[in-house]
Recover the amino acids of this structure.
């Protein structure tokens, strides 16, 4: 009960030397943020250090206070999820990797834009060029030569007797249709009695 009353009492007014005013303000700010226990621990360490060192000068005390403030700032940054003021090599390396990733991403976006522009240029070419190319390739189509009965059987994946049987057992149009179903390219074949060969049917 008494502890609760003590916590609710207003802070006592204490006169502070001018050089210590910034440090006291910093300690007060940390106290308002609920870090009283951490502040007290650091102050205890400072007092012990001062007591054990009888020849400490004012400059040494100021340096110690500066070090404590810096440690408190780093502690605050860690608690708030921020990076400390003194960056570690790992932090610097991570920042360098992030910069490289950003650069690569930018370059990839530029390449993608260039590819889109090239594709757009091809699509916008006059159609007569395409028709010209198509007619050129159509003119270069290889003409299929007539086949002997043995070669036709190999092309259709059957034996010679099967070819003869199918040709003799059904009319020529049906034989042509049978050849189309067997031919890997879907080409029909008809027998020419004058040449003794099987000619392609388009």
């Amino acid at each position: 009960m008494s502890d609760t009353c003590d916590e609710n009492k207003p802070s006592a007014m204490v006169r502070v030397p001018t050089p210590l005013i910034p440090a006291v303000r910093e300690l007060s700010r940390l106290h308002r943020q609920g870090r009283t226990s951490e502040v007290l621990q650091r102050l205890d360490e400072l007092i012990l250090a001062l007591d054990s060192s009888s020849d400490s000068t004012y400059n040494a005390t100021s340096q110690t206070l500066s070090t404590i403030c810096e440690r408190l700032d780093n502690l605050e940054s860690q608690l708030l999820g921020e990076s400390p003021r003194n960056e570690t090599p790992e932090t610097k390396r991570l920042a360098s990797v992030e910069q490289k990733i950003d650069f690569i991403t930018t370059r990839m976006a530029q390449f993608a834009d260039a590819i889109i522009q090239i594709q757009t240029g091809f699509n916008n070419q006059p159609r007569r060029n395409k028709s010209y190319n198509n007619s050129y390739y159509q003119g270069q189509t290889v003409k299929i030569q007539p086949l002997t009965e043995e070669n036709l059987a190999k092309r259709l994946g059957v034996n010679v007797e099967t070819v003869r049987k199918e040709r003799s057992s059904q009319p020529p149009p049906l034989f042509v249709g049978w050849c189309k179903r067997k031919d890997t390219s879907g080409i029909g074949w008809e027998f020419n009695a004058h040449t003794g060969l099987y000619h392609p049917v388009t």
